[in-house]
């Protein structure tokens, strides 16, 4: 009886057909199809000799097949991770290769315009002076933001309704005004009110007002993660509001808030580039001056490289800190 | 002798919800008073109103003969004399057990850290956790957390202790260790107000039991009276369900 029971179960649990994907995922099939794809790529028609339609049809088919092939491997959770890495790298390099071969770009001219090494050499020292302005401005603005934001969040946590209405108005208004508009208003409109801010002060004030609003929201969210039970426990022990804030709420909120604050800092550092419109001699402004002086966009590329070199490590740092706060799951 | 706590016609509403509808009680020194009743009957709110974690809507509260709503009263000084133990422990997760206990004596009583530490360690010993002084709360079991919370409240040398369902969040095997500490405090003559569903403990330890229903004190008496001879059908019904 036992055998008939199990064979009955086998019948009930079986699929009608083994799915096609099972065969497609076998390594031997994948290797053969890869070889076919490469052969196909080698025998692509020459664009000069055939009609454009026929050439682009072939090219699209090739790219479609290539992407499908990669997706089959990338979406298979049984394949080891290093294979997927290789496949992803292979896909990107194939696409780059196809673009280089068939896009019709004029690489020599491109390099002459954007990566002109003699011009690059002459630009660095000017750009670094701009960078120092950028860094100093953003650090000053950052600290004043943190001060403003923390102050606002603390006042807000006391829940005085009329005060909170004012705070909400400030936060909402300044979060919806673009920084660039704020700078223009401060720089070009305020002199009519008898207030003259130089370009540095304009940038500093605009960034503080705008990012102060964001920082206030960040701190508010951080303070709200601390449960009301914590505050009640502290108050029931006889701690005053201020002591509770200093000893209980803020120490618990800060580790949560720091990654977000660093994120704000990065956004702010990028936004200092906007200060170039009010003639603050920061990184982008220096690059644009060089661009006019040397009639070459190379300095702009250099500025981009500098921004990347400074900010990318900071972005990685934020990821690292977030991982330490969350302590869960892989982060890339 | 004057009662240490006197509450007169206390009302509390949260918007439309009328939680306390005129509660008046008196608690004498060294008395252990227990509040029972269905959830939502206002037991916890009553405790929280007495040390003004919630502001009462109306009514008056005297502690040690002083009306705590008078403008010259510093509520922090009143609270310092009322220890409170919560259902969810509410230990400070960023501090070790001993730091949790030392915080309030150092910040509020302004005693030296050295003295606070000595007192804290002896309290931890009293609740049987001397070896856990430098552990963070997340490393402690529920019962151990609640005992640290009790030690934290005791560190202020309070004259009154409030317990707001101190064992409701505990696994059953940890309830005993917390109740033992509470029974010891009661035998040492602490004035205690206890909201709890541990009827066995209340029967043993309480001097007086108050049954709350819909924001009013429906019935009060000795544990013997309440548990064995309840007057009202509501009380009988409630006790039938929990005993």
How would the blueprint of this fold be written?
The complex is a heterodimer of chains A (332) and B (243).
Chain A: H1 2-13, H2 20-24, H3 27-42, H4 52-74, H5 81-102, H6 107-114, H7 117-157, H8 161-176, H9 179-189, H10 199-225, H11 228-236, H12 241-271, H13 283-294, H14 298-326
Helix pairs in contact in A: 3-4, 4-5, 7-10, 7-12, 7-13, 7-14, 8-10, 9-10, 10-12, 11-12, 12-14, 13-14
Chain B: E1 5-14, E2 17-27, E3 32-36, H1 43-50, E4 58-63, E5 66-67, H2 75-80, E6 82-85, H3 97-109, H4 113-126, H5 142-154, E7 160-164, H6 172-187, E8 191-195, H7 199-205, E9 208-213, E10 216-221, H8 223-228, H9 233-242
Parallel strand pairs in B: 3-8, 3-9, 6-7, 7-8
Antiparallel strand pairs in B: 1-2, 1-4, 4-5, 9-10
Put the structure in a nutshell.
The complex is a heterodimer of chains A (332) and B (243). Chain A is built from 14 helices and no strands. Chain A is mainly alpha-helical and 332 residues long.
Task: Spell out the helices and strands of chain A N to C.
Answer: HHHHHHHHHHHHHH
The main sheet of chain B comes to: 6 strands, mixed
Classify the fold: give the CATH topology of the largest domain in chain A. Answer: MetI-like fold
Structural class of chain A: mainly alpha
| CA-based shape of chain B | globular
The largest inter-chain interface, given as chain pair and residues per side, is: A-B, 17 and 26 residues
What characterizes the major β-sheet of chain A?
none
Name a few traits of the molecule.
heterodimer; A: mainly alpha; MetI-like fold; 2 domains; B: alpha/beta; six-stranded mixed β-sheet; four-stranded antiparallel β-sheet; 9 helices; 10 strands
Describe this protein's structure:
- The complex is a heterodimer of chains A (332) and B (243).
- With 332 residues, chain A is mainly α.
- Helices cover 79% and strands 0% of the residues of chain A.
- Chain A contains 14 helices and no strands.
- Chain B is globular, with a radius of gyration of 18 Å.
- A six-stranded mixed sheet of chain B has the order 6-7-8-3-9-10, sandwiched between helices. Chain B has a four-stranded antiparallel sheet with strand order 2-1-4-5, with helices on one face.
- Helices cover 38% and strands 25% of the residues of chain B.
- In chain B, α6 links the parallel β7 and β8.
- Classes of the chains: A mainly alpha (332), B alpha/beta (243).
- At the A-B interface, α11 and α12 of A face α2, β6, α3 and α5 of B.
């Amino acid at each position: 009886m036992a055998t008939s029971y199990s064979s009955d179960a086998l019948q009930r649990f079986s699929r009608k057909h083994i799915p096609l994907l099972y065969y497609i995922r076998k390594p031997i099939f994948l290797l053969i199809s890869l070889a076919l794809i490469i052969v196909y790529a080698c025998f692509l028609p020459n664009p000069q000799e055939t009609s454009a339609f026929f050439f682009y049809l072939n090219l699209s088919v090739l790219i479609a097949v290539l992407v499908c092939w990669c997706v089959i491997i990338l979406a298979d959770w049984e394949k080891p991770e290093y294979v997927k890495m290789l496949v992803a790298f292979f896909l990107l390099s194939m696409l780059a290769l196809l673009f280089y071969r068939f896009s019709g770009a004029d690489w020599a001219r491109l390099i002459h315009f954007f990566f002109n090494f003699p011009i690059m050499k002459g630009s660095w020292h000017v750009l670094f002076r701009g960078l120092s302005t950028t860094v100093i401005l953003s650090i000053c603005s950052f600290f004043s933001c943190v001060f403003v934001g923390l102050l606002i969040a603390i006042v807000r946590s006391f829940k005085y309704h009329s005060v909170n209405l004012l705070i909400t108005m400030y936060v909402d208004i300044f979060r919806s005004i673009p920084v660039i508009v704020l700078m223009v208003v401060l720089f070009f409109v305020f002199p009519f009110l008898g207030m003259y801010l130089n370009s540095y002060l304009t940038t500093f004030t605009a960034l503080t007002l705008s990012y102060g609003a964001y920082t206030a929201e960040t701190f508010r969210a951080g303070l709200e993660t601390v449960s009301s039970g914590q505050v009640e426990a502290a108050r029931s022990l006889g701690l005053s509001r201020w002591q509770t804030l200093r000893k209980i709420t803020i120490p618990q909120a800060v580790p949560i808030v720091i990654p977000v604050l660093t994120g704000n800092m990065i956004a702010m550092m990028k936004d200092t580039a906007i200060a170039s419109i009010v003639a603050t001699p920061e990184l982008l402004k220096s690059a644009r001056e060089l661009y006019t002086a040397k009639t070459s966009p190379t300095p702009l590329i250099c500025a981009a490289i500098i921004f990347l070199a400074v900010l990318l490590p900071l972005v990685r740092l934020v990821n690292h800190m977030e991982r330490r706060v969350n302590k869960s799951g892989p982060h890339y | 002798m004057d009662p240490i706590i006197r509450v007169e016609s206390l009302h509390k509403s949260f918007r439309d919800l009328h939680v306390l509808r005129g509660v008046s009680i008196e608690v004498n020194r060294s008395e252990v008073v227990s509040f029972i009743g269905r959830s939502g009957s206002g037991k916890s709110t009553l405790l929280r109103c007495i040390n003004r974690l919630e502001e009462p809507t109306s009514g008056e509260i005297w502690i040690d003969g002083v009306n705590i709503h008078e403008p010259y009263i510093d509520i922090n000084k009143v609270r310092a004399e009322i220890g409170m133990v919560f259902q969810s422990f509410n230990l400070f997760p960023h501090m070790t057990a001993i730091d949790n206990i030392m915080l309030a004596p150092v910040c509020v009583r302004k005693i030296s850290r050295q003295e606070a530490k000595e007192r804290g360690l002896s309290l931890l010993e009293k609740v049987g956790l001397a070896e856990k002084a430098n552990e963070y709360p997340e490393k402690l079991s529920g019962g151990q957390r609640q005992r640290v919370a009790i030690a934290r409240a005791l560190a202020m040398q309070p004259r009154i202790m409030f317990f707001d369902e101190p064992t409701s969040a505990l696994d059953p095997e940890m309830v005993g260790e917390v109740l033992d500490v509470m029974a010891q405090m009661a035998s040492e003559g602490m004035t205690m107000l206890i909201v709890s569903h541990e009827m066995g403990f209340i029967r043993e330890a309480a001097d007086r039991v108050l049954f709350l229903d819909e924001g009013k004190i429906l019935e009060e008496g000795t544990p013997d009276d309440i548990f064995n001879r309840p007057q009202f059908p509501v009380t009988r019904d409630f006790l039938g369900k929990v005993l």
